[in-house]
Design a protein that fits this description.
Blueprint lengths: L11 H9 L1 H9 L11 E2 L15 H12 L13 H12 L11 E4 L1 H13 L5 E6 L4 H9 L2 E8 L5 E2 L1 H7 L4 E7 L11 H14 L2 E5 L24 E6 L12 E6 L4 H4 L2 H10 L6 H13 L2 H22 L5 E2 L9 E6 L10 H12 L1 E2 L1 E2 L8 E5 L4 H17 L5 E6 L4 E6 L1
Parallel strand pairs: 1-12, 3-4, 3-6, 6-7, 7-8
Antiparallel strand pairs: 2-9, 4-5, 8-9, 10-11, 11-14, 13-14, 15-16
Helix pairs in contact: 1-6, 3-11, 4-11, 5-6, 5-10
Amino acid sequence: MAEQQWRFGGNSKVIGAGAMTLRGVMDGVTKNLNENNGKSVIHLSQGDPSAFPSFRTSAFVEEAVSNALRSANFNGYSSTAGLPAARSAVAEYLSKDLPYNVTSDDVFLTNGCTQALEAALTALARPGANILLPRPGYPDYEARAAFAGLEVRHFDLVPENDWEVDLAAVEALGDENTVAIVIINPGNPCGNVFKYDHLKKIAETARKMGILVIADEVYCHLTFGSNPFTPMGVFASIVPIITLGSLSKKWIVPGWRIGWLVINDLHGILTNHGIVDTIKGFFNISSDPVTFIQAALPEILLKTPTEFYDKIVNLFRESAEKCYKLTNEIPGISCPIKPQGCMFLMIKLDLSKLEGIKDDLDFCCKLAKEESVVLVPGVGLGLKNWMRVTFAVEESYIDEAFQRMRAFCERHAKIHTKVSYYIESPVFEFVYV
């Protein structure tokens, strides 16, 4: 009897793109966790502090959602771009930081910032097109670009310059098929906050190249250093901009999956070149964010007490300072640049001081196995022999995690060469590091 033939099979393009995401990268690290070592797992890998009591979202925010749900007015579908009142609230919220007013027509509500970046990259995808992404960066951009058929070209963020963009390299990377540059500010994974003048130079460079800017501002206003947050939309008179954002980080509710894509285009360039219509078409064939969460946006965005934001920023400031200090006290790792925003810092690995550690991925896998501490290897973010750490956790988690990291680094430290000199008596010993 002939074997039954089936005419379907898995989609290798989807599988490959999935492996490029942050979740895909972390699967390779967490599989090394040892359930039998008697240690609880400490995740310093994900920017989601919602599980910790100190970072619980405002009761006002919860009440706004509860009221919208209990009203029974928002159990149906919303319009494709979102509820009109919710879109207006996003426009009003963003306009506070801009020299012009965003309109509700410029706003598209999304299932978190992830769908917003998916929409932006899908709208730009055409045969032969390429997009410029930061290195280190957020790997979901690479994954989505690969799935959409966009070629990716990387420009470097320079640690010696507070992770600023290497603009000369950006110009050299571009060609007639380059369509956009992605700017993440405040920066994931570096914890940097770009200065006004640098953002202006980015806008001028993009204009010179004839490309648009995708501004990922999901961590907007989560800043605690000397550089204040400046939205890229300030420079919309220079270059067309697509701004991405969400409730997830500032309000500590990533599970609510509500975000936005906003058109900052004072000269109608994106409309004239069909990008806005393409974005509209994308949302016509995709799902809408939860309607009752949309309905709560006017209250959340415009009326959340400032005390809540102040508390969260102060917690991040204290945690970032602690992680920065503790990192630089451990031989074999360092944090050269103190974070100024976001929820992360980048740790540099010094392999010359560690025995039996091949690279950042090896470090993270062995740390997970031996100490049950989970970090993000820099290779997954585009920067080998660095690692990303989140400080958006309770202080007790930071203390315990860094104690284990110190123990790990000391256990893997290269053995010192010990030389003894006998000068009559006693024995004088000199240790060379």
